[in-house]
Amino acid sequence: MPVSVRDVAAHAGVSVSTVSRALRGVEGIAMGTRKRVQEAAELLGYSASPSASRLATGRTRTVAVVVPQLSKWFFAEVIAAAGRVLAREAYDMLLVELATPDLRRAFFGGARLRGRSDGAIVLALQLRDDEMEALVRQAQVIALVGSERPEASSVSVEDREGGRSATRHLVNLGHERIAFIGIRDEPGATLGGVPPAERLQGYRAALAEARLPEDPALVLDVENSVASGAAAAAALLTLAEPPTAVFAASDEIAFGVLKTLRGAGLRVPEDMSVVGYDNHELADAVSLTTMDHDVSRQGALAAEALVAALAGGEPRGGRIEPRLVVRGSTAPPRRLRAGLP
Predict the structure, then answer these.
(1) Dihedral-angle region of residue 129 (phi above 0 means left; psi in -120 to 50 means alpha; beta otherwise)
(2) Cα–Cα distance, 235 to 233 (Å, whole number)
(3) pTM to 2 decimals?
(4) Which helix H or strand E contains 208, and what residues bound it?
(5) Mind listing the pLDDT tens digit for each residue in 304-338?
(6) How many Å apart are CA 120 and CA 141, to the nearest integer?
(7) Which 8-state DSSP code applies to residue 98?
(8) Whether 86 contacts 92, CB under 8 Å
(9) How far apart are alpha carbons 194 and 143 in whole angstroms?
(10) Strand, coil or helix: what is 105?
(11) In this structure, how many other beta carbons lie within 10 angstroms of the beta carbon of residue 66?
């Protein structure tokens, strides 16, 4: 027979209304009484109806997660990690995908979250002032992943340093012609563009430190996909002097590069070295050297910051330092292995 609120009241020696108020967190209940009620509820295995609690407090106990693309590995990993934290804190999750500029305009132009969520985790979208104001008008507490605003909690990656570390690894191996395949930031695109731009800045900084000239022909911007990475690698191979190494701004692009190189009969890393960015779950399977920026931790930190803010805390930020994961896709260029100057 299921345990009722009356059973808890009888066990704790209080009224039914006191049990209801104590378990909903309503103010005005003495700490000793609240603790006694909670202990009785736990002992008897009683839990209050979530819908009743929501109606009483005016809180939805739901967090929206706003994402450019649900199908991408990066976003799926962030969402999964955030979801584990939210579930632990008894929050439900509402997923919102803004895969096109039209969807983005409609979402921020309406009031889709009003009354449906208490806060929002926004992934990889550089919010304009009007978009941020639209969320605030809907009474949303905000946490950002991949961007920063002073009025919101945020989790960001030191992507410029990550780009520099990836390129410096190739420079230290002796490579001088290093290509960079970045993620295109098209006007009106859902992805904001800050992380890809910072990775390019890191690439340029590492070349400058090594006093290596930047060849514009070796810098390409493509869509973030395997197919685009493959096409970019094919274009690099047509150059009069192809690069000896490639730094791709994502592992998906790097997978495409590997596909083209191997299809052309070139060996990796003997004929060309490749570095990716993300530490995708398949990176180890293809022995890809890459930059790990702790994708799951980004989601967990954002959810923890949002939950804390919903409980009355101040917005807080976190920054993650990428780390180089060396695998089998990088080695000194062939001329050095052959002992040539």
Answers:
(1) alpha
(2) 5
(3) 0.79
(4) helix 194-209
(5) 999 999 988 888 888 999 999 999 999 999 866 55
(6) 6
(7) -
(8) yes
(9) 17
(10) helix
(11) 28
